Amino acid sequence: MKFDSHAHGMHAELDPVTNKRVPPVVPAWTDADGPVGSHIEGHRAMGIEGVLLLDPPEVTFPLKALLGDFVCHCPMVRMHESSREEILAIMERGASGIKFIAPMRPLGDEEYFPLYEAVRDAGGLAVFHTGYQNRNSFDPGGFMARPKYLRITDSRPAEIDRISRAFPGLKILMAHMGNPWWEEAFCVITQSPNVFADFSGGSALRVDMDYWKRLFAPNGKPALKALEKLCYGSDASMCHPGAFECQSMMDFYEDFYNAIGLPPELREKIDRGNIRSLLGLD
């Protein structure tokens, strides 16, 4: 079984004129969609025991209430507007951590340190979007718009390295393996005891498997310090009625395991053990 460390459940309507998503952002599943039992069982039949939702609080809290123990959540915040008090309030409501995405400054800027300190003090998980960001969501005019255009270099894995040095007691998950700064991300998870990473999103699938084999098993020798820091993550929509979108990422991870020749115990750690430990479930 797998526990998905990177899932979504939000919905925004499509503007028929611009063909772009528009606010507000709402839960993809509501009471009007009926019981969720068959949806959960369908994912578990695929091998997904649970998911970590990474959407705004107005999405994750209702979905947690609806889907119960199938869901853990780290709500995303608007970093340029957030505060230590907001982070602690979200954590006190039962969140497992916080997702940090679309910063207006580099992620490692000290202006954000009070936010990270709050997550650490609450014993939560800090999930960081790293690498490339799509153009439709957070840029001015997007359905989760920020006040300025994003600079993707503000979310490089090197920024996570600085955060891990400043907050060695903070549990960190680096989403998307820093796409396209894969090797930078590899160095960070290898050298930073408190940083883990996932391959979530579609970009990793489009990279030749020989590349991943060279990176994680140079000269045929598995880089265990890095491999032991990976988590299974899809970036799929897991809460839309009738949607079962994670098979391509499940196949990618299995191909990755087979290419490197990972033993069952390490596969289990990546599939579910690491993220469950980070979330305090085990």
Q: Strands, helices and their partners?
A:
Blueprint: E1 2-8, E2 10-11, E3 26-27, H1 37-46, E4 48-53, H2 57-67, E5 71-73, E6 76-78, H3 84-92, E7 97-101, H4 113-121, E8 125-129, H5 157-166, E9 171-175, H6 182-191, E10 195-198, H7 209-216, H8 224-227, E11 230-231, E12 236-237, H9 247-260, H10 264-278
Parallel strand pairs: 1-4, 1-12, 4-5, 6-7, 7-8, 8-9, 9-10, 10-11
Antiparallel strand pairs: 2-3
Name the features.
single chain, alpha/beta, TIM Barrel, six-stranded parallel β-sheet, four-stranded parallel β-sheet, 35% helix
H/E series, N to C?
EEEHEHEEHEHEHEHEHHEEHH
Biggest β-sheet description: 6 strands, parallel
Strand percentage, roughly?
15-25%
Distance between the termini: 15 Å
Instruction: Name the overall outline.
Output: globular
Count the E strands.
Answer: 12
Helix fraction bin: 25-40%
Rg from Cα = 18 Å
Task: List low-pLDDT spans.
Answer: none
Strand order of the largest sheet: 6-7-8-9-10-11
The helix/strand class is alpha/beta
CATH topology name, in short, is TIM Barrel
What is the CATH architecture term?
Alpha-Beta Barrel
* CATH H-level superfamily: Metal-dependent hydrolases
List the domain count as a whole number: 1
Helix count from the secondary structure assignment = 10
Mean of all residue-level pLDDT scores: 96
CATH structural class: Alpha Beta
